[in-house]
Write a structure and sequence with these properties.
It is built from four helices and twelve strands. By secondary structure, it is an alpha+beta fold. Strand 1 and strand 2 form a beta hairpin.
Length: about 210
């Protein structure tokens, strides 16, 4: 539930010329890797830990993303939930509660981390200070929000062989959410119907 909420609702000082150049290179590198995929579909495995490293929750599911701004995140039973966005609205459906929550999509990247993968990547440097490191075929990016009202303190994106591999979010109390992406497919045709949602008959609807 917490990750779903973060996906929904989810200050660089010029200390030296080298630091500025490194940040600029990191932005360019991340933009290149994100722009290569106009669609992404994959399985995911998610693990949430508290500040001491104790496991809080483990789930798995399926995701689909399509630029610009379309995403679908389906968590498997027994904690089944479905999050769908058409780029303007977001539907969060909990079948156990028979409840649908509808929100306007927050376009701020610091409040909607999923938009890093499916949104306008040109806005990344406006929202984050970015650093990166490369080791062999693995590239890691650390994104720190410039806004003080962000829902997370840092976000790590990792690519292996130029393909999205995993993601980690850390919040202000040290809670970590680790997401591993499996069987990633890029630039395959995705039906736009994946990114629309029909409210099930009898479901309670909450507008936020």
């Amino acid at each position: 539930m917490r990750l779903i909420r973060m996906l929904l609702l989810t200050v660089l000082s010029f200390s030296s010329v080298a630091a500025v150049a490194d940040d600029s290179l990191a932005v360019q590198r991340l933009t290149e890797l994100l722009n290569q995929a106009q669609t992404i579909s994959a399985r995911f495995s998610q693990l949430t830990l508290d500040g001491s490293g104790t496991q809080l929750q483990e789930t798995a599911g399926q995701l689909a993303l399509k630029r610009p701004g379309l995403f679908r995140w389906h968590t498997d039973a027994p904690m089944e939930q479905l999050l769908v966005s058409n780029g303007e609205k977001v539907w969060l459906y909990d079948p156990d509660l028979e409840q649908v929550t509808i929100q306007t999509l927050d376009q701020r990247l610091t409040h909607t981390p999923a938009l890093l993968l499916s949104g306008d990547v040109s806005k990344i440097s406006e929202n984050f200070a970015i650093s990166h490191s490369e080791s062999g075929t693995v590239v890691d990016f650390i994104l720190k929000p410039k806004s003080k009202d962000s829902l997370f303190d840092s976000l790590r994106l990792s690519f292996r062989n130029k393909v999205l591999n995993d993601m980690q979010l850390i919040d202000s109390i040290g809670q970590r959410t680790n997401i591993l992406f499996l069987g990633v497919k890029m630039n395959e045709a995705l039906d736009d119907g994946l990114f629309t949602f029909d409210i099930p008959q009898g479901a309670d609807v909450i507008q936020e």
